[in-house]
Amino acid sequence: MTESKSSRKGLKICCGITTVVLIIFLIVSVTLFFTVFKPKKPQITAHPASLENLEFQIFPSLSLNATVGLVVTIDNKNYGSFRFKNTTSTVYYHGTSVAEAPIPHGTVPARGKFNIRTYANFTADKLISSPFLWGDLFAGRLTFTSTSTLHGKLEGMLTFDDKHVKGFVETSSNSLLKLIFGSK
After folding, report:
1. What is the tens place of the pLDDT at every residue in 113-127?
2. What Gene3D superfamilies does UniProt report for this protein, alphabetically (predicted)?
3. Can you point out the beta strands (E) in the chain?
4. Which of these, 29, 33, 44, lies nearest to 79 by C-alpha position?
5. Which residue, of 4, 53, 80, 88, has the fewest CB within 10 Å?
6. How far apart are CA 82 and CA 62, in angstroms?
7. Nearest-angstrom CA–CA distance, 33 and 14
8. Which of the 8 DSSP states describes residue 92?
9. CA–CA distance from 139 to each of 123, 134, 135, 167, 177 (Å)?
């Protein structure tokens, strides 16, 4: 009889300790999942690299086309790799689309950066027709805004569903005028 009471007491202690350890493990896992392992949007930055082509035409109509080399950096802060599809980055001047740059598909490693070299073809017909152009030229500063949306998914991370993450960024660049006119 004493043997059965002591074995039951030992069984209760063992089950109690196991339950406490499992509850602590569950609390730590849920806390980590909603803080550290929470899916984050990738950060996208476009850097003008070079002026590849510049065409200026006066006759029969005034036109200016330029091809600017860009380096697009995608920074993945997640603990899983980010695989994204082909997309396009659009460059705006005071709300008017003046250029597009293709971004090919790829995979950004976990907690890493990925550089893509691409080209943006500026059609200056839209730039020239802007009422803000001459004032900005006399001020010595052209401000362009670029937006990119990356559709992709995280790989290698445990999520409740097949988690699709969309990256969206709006960056501002003042260096294009310096590239075109060659001043520093």
Report:
1. 999 998 888 877 788
2. 2.60.40.1820
3. 43-57, 63-75, 81-84, 87-93, 96-103, 106-108, 113-123, 144-155, 164-173
4. 33
5. 4
6. 44
7. 28
8. E
9. 22, 9, 6, 34, 11
